[in-house]
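Notebook, p. 212. Picked up where the previous page left off. The plan for this session was modest: take the two constructs that came back from the sequencing core last week, fold each one, and keep the raw output in the notebook itself so nobody has to go hunting through shared drives later. Recording the first one now, exactly as returned: residue sequence, then the C-alpha cell string.
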Amino acid sequence: MQRQSRDPFDASTIPDDLAPIATKLSTMLPGDWRSLRPVIDRLKCVKCGLCWLYCPVQCVVEKPRWFEFDLAVCKGCGICAQECPHRAISMIEEAGR
C-alpha cells in the first residue's frame, strides 16, 4: 500500500468557535416568525386544491366545504395566494407580534 501524499486530517487544529453547530432542538415553529398570514375568502374559493398542492410546508387543511390553514405551521410565504386562480386567498399582516 502506498503512503498518502499528505498526513490525515487532524480535527484538533480547528478552533472551537469557528462554526457553531446547533445541538439543542428548537421548539420554534414556522408560524412563530411569520409576518404575513393567509386568509381565505370562502365565497371565492371553489376548492380546486391548488393552494394545498403548492404549499411548501403542507399547512393547508381540507375541510368538508373549503380549505383552512394551520397557522402554527404556515410560514407566510404567500405561494398559496399567488397560485390561487380565483384570488380567494389574500395575505394580511400579522397583528400583535
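Okay, moving on. Second construct, recorded in the same format:
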Amino acid sequence: MAQVTCSSCGTSWPAGYQFCGRCGSAMQISEPVPFIPPPPMGPAPDVQSGGLLFDDDIGAQISYPDASVVRFVVLRGPVLEGTAFDLPEGRVQIGRTGDLAMSADSLMAPRHATVERFGEQVKLDDITGPGGCFLRIREPTTVASGEVIFAGEQYLLVRSAHDIPTEPPSAYAPPETFGTPLPAPRLHVTQLLAGGLPGRVVSTDREQLTVGREGCDLSFPQDRFMSGRHLRIDLLPDGGLSLTDVGSLNGTFVRVTQTPVPLHRGDEILIGSTLLRLEIKAAGEA
C-alpha cells in the first residue's frame, strides 16, 4: 500500500491521510487519491404498487420507509374523542375486532368495513356491517327514494311519492273502519328509532322539505348536533331526491351503497356509531 511521510515528524501513514495521526500536521499529498465508487444500490421503491417490493429469490415482502401519515381520528361516539388510528398500507378491516378495533362500539360489526390504502390514496372497498357506512356530503347529492340519511343524531328514511304506502297494512285494517283519508304526498320523511321502529313522520305535497333544529318542516329541538336549518330535500323529475346541506356545523351524511368509494383528506365517515375523519399528511408536509 502506498505510504506518505509527515514532513514535520517523519511518521509514515497510508496514502489518503490528510493530517498526521501523530503530530496533527497537514500531509503533503503528491498525487490525488483515486476515487472509489460506492457499492451499487438496490432498486427504487415501486410507488405504483403501494411502496412494496418483493425479493424474487426468497419471495419475501420488503417495505420501505414512508414519511406520509394517513390516519382516522375519532370525532364522536363511544370511542374516546381525538383517538387516532394510523392506517397502514394495504387492506385494513375496521370493526369491533378488526385491524382497527373499536370494541366499545356496540353498533359496529366485528368486521364492519374494509379500507384500502396505497400511499396517500385511500378507498372504502367493502362494507359487511348490517348498519352500513355513511359519508358526509360536500355538495348537493342525489339519493334514491327509500334511502336512509344521517344528520345531527337522526337517521331519516326519505321517500318520494311512488314509494309511499297508499294503503294501510292488512293486519291493521278491519273490513270497515273510519278515519282521515290517506294523503298523497310528494315527499315523505320518517325518523328511524333504535331497533328500526318509526318515529316522527312528516309529509308534504310540495317539492321541497327542510330539516333542522327549529322552524323547519321536520324539527328536532332537542338534538344538540342539529343546526337551526340543517338540510334540504328536493324532489327530482325522475322521482329521485336531491340532498343539500345548507351550511350545517356537523354535516349531512348519505349511506354508501356502492363500493369502492375513494376517500379524500378531511372526509368524515360514520361507521357504527363512531364518527371518523380521514387525515392525510403528505411526505415533507409541515
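Notes on construct two before I forget. DSSP finds no helices and 24 strands in the chain.
Flagging for discussion at group meeting.
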